[in-house]
Amino acid sequence: MTIEKKDDTFLATNIKGMMMTLLAHWNNEMDAARSGTEFADIRPADMRVFGQLRGRTVKLSEIHREMSFSRQAAQQAVERLAKQGMIQIDLAPGSKRDKIISITEKGQKWRSIAASQIRKIEQDCAHVIGDSGRETLRALLIELIKDSKN
Predict the structure, then answer these.
(1) CATH of segment(s) 17-148
(2) Which parts of the chain have pLDDT scores under 50?
(3) At a CB cut-off of 8 Å and minimum separation 6, what does 41 contact?
(4) Helix (H, G, I), strand (E, B) or coil at 120
(5) Bridge partners, 100 (sequence order)
(6) What distance in Å separates the CA atoms of residue 40 and residue 54, rounded to the nearest whole number?
(7) What backbone torsions phi and psi does residue 13 show, to the nearest 5 degrees?
(8) Dihedral sign computed on CA atoms, order 118, 123, 129, 130
(9) Taking the domains of the chain in order of start, what are their residue ranges?
(10) Exposed (0-12), middle (13-18) or buried (19+): which is 80, by Cβ within 10 Å?
(11) What is the gyration radius of the CA atoms in the chain, in angstroms?
């Protein structure tokens, strides 16, 4: 089966693919910022799970749903993060199974470093598309995220 020219062109510049390219680039920058720090040994995939917490205390079941991970994969990442001292795992009140994930002091330290890196990424965006372009992009992404939850 051959791909049609119109599909070839579309696939080269589709929004999802371009976002994945940018995310990979930004994730590489974040990973580079971790090298040489006490956070260097944490797996990049585990850092993505940590980033998904965004400072919240959440149930493990919410993490795997939000990230479209299997419960087992999310649980393994959470356990590795707990071993690294980034998060704390407790049983959810009133539950014998569900776990609550919260960020430790070490995790908060990484959040400060990550915030600096994310500010740099956003400044780089503004350098290319301007401050108003960056804020328009942010507003559009918020709308897309809201719509995706419906």
Answers:
(1) 1.10.10.10
(2) none
(3) 84
(4) helix
(5) 59, 90
(6) 20
(7) -130, 25
(8) positive
(9) 17-148
(10) middle
(11) 18
Contact predicate 46/67, CB 8 Å: no
Residue 26 tokens read as 């930004």
Place of tokens 């994310």: 118
Tokens for 71? 């419960």
Nearest one of 42, 60, 64, 45 to 109, comparing CA atoms: 42
Q: Quote the CA–CA distance of 83 and 139 in Å, as a whole number.
A: 37
Kindly report the pTM of this predicted structure. Answer: 0.76
Q: How many residues does the chain have?
A: 150
The vertex-106 CA angle with 95 and 123, nearest 5°, equals 110
Contact by Cβ (8 Å): 64, 71: yes
At 31-55, the pLDDT tens digits run 898 888 999 888 888 888 888 888 8
Identity (one letter) of the amino acid at 141?
A: L
